[in-house]
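## tool: complex_structure
## caller: assistant
## args:
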Amino acid sequence: MSEIKVLGEYTILTDRKYLETDEWVKLEGDIAIIGISDYAQKKLKDIVGVEFKEPGTKVKKGDLVAEVESIKSRGEVYAPFNGEIIEVNTRLEEEPDIINSDPYGEGWLVKIKPDNPADYEKLLSPEEYAKTIEEREKS
Amino acid sequence: MTLKKSPLHEVHVELKASFEEFAGWYMPITYTSGIKEHLAVREKAGVFDVSHMGRIKITGGDDALVFLQKLVPKELSKIGPGSMSGPTAFLNENAGFKDDVMLYNSGSEWYIVCNAVNREKILDWLNKWKTEWGANVGIEDITFDIVMMALQGPSSAELMEKIGLSKALELKMMQFHRNLESSYGKVFLVSRSGWTGEDGFEIWATPEIGAKIFKALVGYGATPAGLAARDTLRLEMGFVLYGHDIDENTTPVEARYWVWTPGKTGYIGYEALREVLKKGVDKIRVGVKMKKKVKAIPRGGDLVTVEGEVIGEVTSGNYSPTMKRGIGMAYVDSRHALIGLEIEANIRGRGYPGKLVDFPILKK
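## result:
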C-alpha cells in the first residue's frame, strides 16, 4: 500500500480520503469506513476511551459520531457527509489503544452509509491533507 | 514569543521525546507513552526534567527569614537548615494564591521553588516587598543556571546509590543536602521530595552534570517520564496545578490546601484568610471518581450535577492509569461537598456517573 510521510513522521495512506479535522474515510462498496489519521493519534497520544453515537443514528455532515479520549485531550470525530451510522467498532471500548497502534486498520471507528456516495469525492486527497498538516506544524 | 527550552533539551531529543508548550517552555510531554511512564513511576522509577520550575535564591541570613516570614502563611522558624517547608504559598491581600511554592532553608540563604507559569510574577512580588520594606535581602533567579530533575518511584533509592548519591538515602521526606559529590560531579542540591506521591529525590545540578545524571539514571533503568505522566500522577494524589485548580481568586481554605500554620499572624493575606476561616466557604475542592465502565473522562470546565442540578465544576481531570478510569478534582458548593455523594460529570452535555471522593484519589 502506498503512503505519504509528512515531515518524516506522520503517515498518510493513499487509498483513502481525509477531512481537515483529521478523520480518514475509505469507501468499501457503498459503505464508508471512518477513523482518525496517524497524525491525529500521534497528537492525542495514549488513547484511553472511545464513545460512539448509536448505530442507526442518522447524521449530517459535521455531526459528532465518536469521541476519543486520551491522556492529553478529547478528540472529536465528525461525519464526513450525511448518512446513517450502521456499525461502530465496539472492540475499541475495551482496547482503545488499538487506535494508537493501528489507526488505519483495526482502529477504525464507525461505518456510515452515505446518502449520496458521490460526496466522497469532495473530501481531501491524501496530498491535500498532507498540506494541511504541514501548514499546521509550521505555525 | 520564543519558547524557553530546558538546558537538558538535547538529552530529551536523543531519547526521542515529543515536546509541547507548557507555561512558556518547550518541554517533553512523553517519551514513549504517558501511561507507561506513569506506571513506571508507581511500580519502579521514572525520571523527569523539571527545569521549567522557577528557582529563586533569597540571601541575607536572618533578614531572609524575616522577609519570607512576612510573605508566607507557614511558620518558618521551625524549618531548620536542610529542611523544606512542605507546600506553602504566597498569598495576595485577599488570601488568594499568588502561587503555591516550596521553601528550602539552606542556612544563610533560602531557596524558593515556584511554578513555571508564575516565575516572573513571583520575582516581581518579591522585589516589590523588598523595596516596600527596605529589606536587606538578595533576590536571585537561578532557574536558568541550574537544572532540576525528579527521580520518583519505589526504586529511586537504589538508583541514587548507583549514581554515587547514597548519602541522599539518609534524608527523610522534606529534607535536603547541599553540594553532594556524585559519580558525575558535585550536585547543587538533593532533596527527598517530589510531586507524585511516591518516594523520590529531586536533584539540582549544573546543566553539564545534570545531563550526565539524567542519562545515567535512564541507563540504570529509570524510565524517562514527561509532563503527561507528571499530570496524571499528581492528579491521582489530589495535588493541585496552579492556573487550573488554584489561582489568585482561590483561597487555601476552599482548596483544602493546608499551606498555613494556624496561629501564625502578620503575613500578607493573613487578615483575609482569618476572615475566610471565621465565615466559612461557599465551595470546596473535592475529588471526582468516575464509575469504572465510563469511558468519558472529566476535564476542566465540565459541570458536576446531581439530578441535573449544577453543584460544581471540574478544574482538572484525566484518565488514571493506576485506577483505569476517569478521575478529576472539582469545586463543589459546600452544601453538596459530601464525600461519597453520587454525582454526574457532564461531559459534552451528557451526564456520566461518578462520585465525590476525598484526596488522595488513589488510595495506596
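## assistant note: The mean pLDDT of chain A is 95. DSSP finds four helices and eleven strands in chain A. Handing back to user.
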